[in-house]
Specification:
The chain is an all-beta fold. 0% of the residues lie in helices and 52% in strands. The protein contains no helices and 11 strands. The protein has strands at 3-7, 10-12, 17-25, 34-39, 45-51, 58-60, 68-73, 78-84, 92-99, 108-111, 115-119. Strands 2, 4, 5, 6, 9, 10 and 11 form a 7-stranded mixed β-sheet that branches. A 4-stranded antiparallel β-sheet has the order 1-3-8-7, with no helix packed on it. Strand 5 (45-51) and strand 6 (58-60) form a beta hairpin.
Length: 121
Amino acid sequence: QVQLVDSGGGLVQPGGSLSFSCAASGFAFSSYSMSWVRQAPGKGLEWVASIDRDGINTYYADPVKGRISISRDNVKNMLYLLLNSPKPEDTAVYYCAKSLSSQSPRPFDYWGQGTHVIVSS
């Protein structure tokens, strides 16, 4: 069965950096686009970034563009996210997500359990 296990969250100061990982199993990882989404306290899910199945093309939401980098390792079946210069508004639970179709990055059909990030001085 499909499993996505997120890790790497924590407390970070504004201006620092934080990296996330997602370990994928139970499906052909290299055949699907993958994404990160987040949910801030009291708000709905927000798409953050996507990467195509080959890791060649990446896409970022405007609020994080220039501060975030998504990458993947199709040998290790791992998805990564690097957040630079975090801001308090980046405080959220971050989830990795698998695309439903091998032909499109969205919609998603599976999510990880989430990893909490708090940006605070």
